Amino acid sequence: MIAARIERDELARLIRFAIVGGTSTLLYAVQALAFEHHGAGALTASLVAYLLSAIFSYTAQRRVTFASDRPHAACIPRFALLNLAGIAVAAASPSILTVGMGLHSIFAIGVTCIVAPAISYVVMRRLVFVTP
């Protein structure tokens, strides 16, 4: 009975995580396209959109997904490091899987789309938003 409730709670948290992540990704894409449309270069548009979507993601994951009351001073640096690690995975995966292993780029993209969020969820759950 208790195990079923924990599993149900964890499933609900995973669904919220996916919704927030999907919304954040959509927000990033729309903003990047809008900034570029209004004259920003592709790199600038992407970086500004990523930063803005990260602010949304932090706020929503903290409040909606994990309902954390851990102080921002403890969460923000960890969240920032996690995002930097996610960028590193997204940058390294295509190189390792396509150049290093000779696989098609769609495989590298697929791996990144699965591995990066899975790692993010575990790290957010265990290290970023955990209540001290």
Spatial gap, N to C terminus: 27 Å
Shape: globular
Count of separate DSSP helical elements: 4
Rg over C-alpha atoms, rounded to the nearest angstrom = 17 Å
Q: Which percent range fits the helix content? A: over 70%
Assess the beta-strand content as a share of residues: under 5%
Low-confidence stretches: none
Q: Which structural class fits the helix and strand makeup? A: mainly alpha
Q: How many structurally independent domains?
A: 2
Topology as a string of helices (H) and strands (E):
HHHH
Q: Summarize model confidence as the mean pLDDT.
A: 90
Main sheet properties: none
Instruction: Give the tally of β-strands.
Output: 0
Helix-strand blueprint:
Layout: H1 2-37, H2 42-65, H3 72-100, H4 105-128
Helix pairs in contact: 1-2, 3-4
Structure description:
The protein is mainly alpha-helical and 132 residues long. It folds into two domains: 1-67; 69-132. It has four helices and no strands. The protein has helices at 2-37, 42-65, 72-100, 105-128. Helix 3 packs antiparallel against helix 4 (105-128).
